[in-house]
Amino acid sequence: MSDTTLMAMAERFLSALKHCQVLQMRVAHADSDGITLVLPWSKAIVGNPQTGAVHGGALTTLMDTTCGMATLCVLPRFEVCPTLDLRIDYMHPAAAGKDIHGHAQCYRVTRDVIFTRGTAYQDDPDRPICQVVGTFMRLGQDIKGGLHFGNSLREKDA
Questions:
Q1: Fewer CB within 10 A of the terminal residue: the chain, N end or C end?
Q2: Long-range contact list for 58-61, CB < 8 A, 24+ apart?
């Protein structure tokens, strides 16, 4: 799959997730090596109003979505792949006023499970806010998801 096709699929996938729309997340990059999403900083994602630190739930949403979408980078065709397990190790709080980048890649694909890892960071990928590992169940290409979810992600001409 070309990088352009992958980006288009990733953007369609993200646009189908209402909670990601509410958070105004966007796809920054997608290729065969992984995917990077951006969670724009806003007052709506602040967990501690005194410090401006981002709520852990917003970071969890970013990284679960990023890891789940990394499956698009390794599968030949779209499959619904729900989260089996997600572990997040928080390193330090996100700084107020700065967008957060989530990057993830798949490091192993089996018949039934896809294994991912990633980081969230602001200015420097070498100084992560958190690290994450996740596993996602492969349900196959015939599973469409609720309300024709899978069909909404396919290209119109496909």
A1: C
A2: 58/23, 59/88, 59/90, 59/94, 59/100, 59/120, 59/129, 59/130, 60/86, 60/88, 61/19, 61/20, 61/23
| H or E element, residue 38 | strand 34-39
pLDDT in tens, 106-147: 999 999 999 999 999 999 999 999 999 999 999 987 765 554
Task: Name the percent of the chain lying above pLDDT 70.
Answer: 89
| Type of residue numbered 72 | L
pTM for the model? 0.86
Phi and psi torsions of 56, nearest 5°: -60, -30
Coil, helix or strand at residue 119: strand
Tens-digit pLDDT profile for residues 40-72: 999 999 988 888 889 999 999 999 999 999 999
Q: Which two tokens stand for residue 117?
A: 């890892």
Query: What is the residue whose two structure tokens read 């070309």?
Result: 2
Q: Is 111 left (phi over 0), alpha (psi -120 to 50) or beta?
A: alpha
**Do the beta carbons of residue 54 and residue 100 sit within 8 Å?**
yes
